[in-house]
Amino acid sequence: MTRAGTQAGPGRSARDTALIADTSHPSRREQILQAAAQLFAERGARAVGVDDIGAAVGVTGPAIYRHFASKDAMLAEMLVGISERLADGARERIAEAGPEPAAQLRALIDFQVEFALDNPALIVVHDRDLPSLPGADAAAVRRLQRRYVEEWVAVLARLHHGDDAAACRARAHAVFGLINSTPHSAGRLGRPAMGELLRRMAWSAATG
């Protein structure tokens, strides 16, 4: 039986897909982003005030403005930043996996699963609050997302020689929908079990 994915390669960790680069020693700016993401996911960005975010990280609301010009700036940095990390990370994972498309697909599935398990709040924020971003920031997110999707499409096209780009794109979006369901399901299983289940299901969706 073909495995749905592999573990992260040498030097890799699930933190590669997290909102911040160093979760053991986050900067104040990174702490603010983490707290804002959680609050935005719970209440919606429009229902969260700067004072709420400040209280979550132990500073006064006005102190937030030393790091971000506005709440919209926080939302933009969250969504643009994680979109950049996904787009760049996908290309890196493909390169590390070697020339075989099956290995590349396993690497991409691992990467997306790690992202989803690390960032359930960001998935909720993206789905609900992306329309709230200013036009230029929303366009940047969508441009980066298209780049990420096309990395998957290229791999799937090499794996499924008879499928055109539209079919491969549909496969990719089906996999994203499955994996990104984790905000609603991940708490019911431990992380290892949930990760393995998602890998198996994503592999079946991508190759079936």
Automatic annotation (TrEMBL):
**Does DNA-binding count among this protein's keywords?**
yes
What is this protein identified as? TetR family transcriptional regulator
Domain of life, per the record?
Answer: Bacteria
Q: Where is this region: Disordered?
A: 1-25
Keywords from UniProt, A to Z, are: DNA-binding
DNA-binding span(s): 49-68
Query: What PANTHER family does the record point to?
Result: HTH-TYPE TRANSCRIPTIONAL REGULATOR RUTR, TRANSCRIPTIONAL REPRESSOR MCE3R
Positions of the HTH tetR-type domain? 26-86
Enumerate the GO terms in the molecular function aspect: DNA-binding transcription factor activity; transcription cis-regulatory region binding
Q: Which InterPro entries match?
A: Homeodomain-like_sf, HTH-type_TetR-like_transc_reg, HTH_TetR, KstR2_TetR_C, Tet_transcr_reg_TetR-rel_C_sf
> Gene3D superfamilies annotated for this entry?
Homeodomain-like (1.10.10.60), Tetracycline Repressor, domain 2 (1.10.357.10)
